[in-house]
């Protein structure tokens, strides 16, 4: 009840209408408050939704931006190219020249080696035949040896390809051990000697000769090439005939002649030229 008004039944109609009006007004006021609160809540929800949407869009934008940034800043690294190891071609080293044969050329052994071989016919030269190149007279070497002193000497080549080497001595005594020509036609050889053309007389005074290849100083390296011609007009005329093919047909070579009497050795053996080997050009 309303204070001071008493029970509704004791109220007048005007009082009851007043009360109903107040109640209705109160209800309407409450309803308005509820409606207003609901609207605010909706707006709050919508605002929250808008904020959420904005946040999501912002997040999406941020994500897209991040994606874009990542796409932009991502460095594309090319795959590593594997280069096969480069193998340097083997260095071609020129073969070293063979070492110079050690030792000395033992002419006693060369003479024995020459006498041990046989076969074939020796060449011969004919006095007056054409020489190629032209024959050259050498100065006499007389007077520098007391036994088997060489006087006239020369080496010439006939157009047939056969060489004649002459080592004339001033006497046919003392007895002859051997006479020879040492030829240096290429690198190597024993003491620079590639071939020895050597001659000797037998007990019957017959002449014999041979061409021996001497690429080394040891006898195992030698080669008995072929016979050389040794005509014997007399014991003082010492002549060696040999083919150019037996010494390899060189276009040029150095040579030196020697005459050894029995019992002579070393520097006692006469030789020409005195100053050293002579150069022969074909």
Low-confidence stretches: 1-5, 41-76
The chain-level mean pLDDT equals 80
Give the helix/strand class.
alpha+beta
Tell me the total number of β-strands.
Answer: 10
Largest sheet: 7 strands, antiparallel
Overall number of structural domains: 2
Q: How far apart lie the N and C ends? A: 166 Å
- Described by the principal axes of the CA atoms, the overall outline is rod-shaped
Q: Into which percentage range does the β-strand content fall?
A: 15-25%
What is the number of helical segments per DSSP (H or I, 4+ residues)? Answer: 2
Percent of residues in helices comes to: 25-40%
Pattern of helices and strands: HHEEEEEEEEEE
Rg, Å, rounded: 65 Å
Describe the structure concisely:
The chain is α+β, with helices and mostly antiparallel strands and 282 residues long. It has helices spanning 13-73, 107-116; strands at residues 150-157, 162-169, 176-184, 195-201, 207-213, 223-227, 239-243, 252-261, 270-272, 278-281.
Question: Mind explaining what this structure looks like?
Answer:
The protein is of the alpha+beta class and 282 residues long. It has two domains: 56 residues; 175 residues. 25% of the residues lie in helices and 23% in strands. The strands form two sheets. Strands 3, 4, 5, 6, 8, 9 and 10 form a seven-stranded antiparallel sheet that branches. It has a three-stranded antiparallel sheet with strand order 1-2-7, with no helix packed on it. The N terminus is likely disordered.
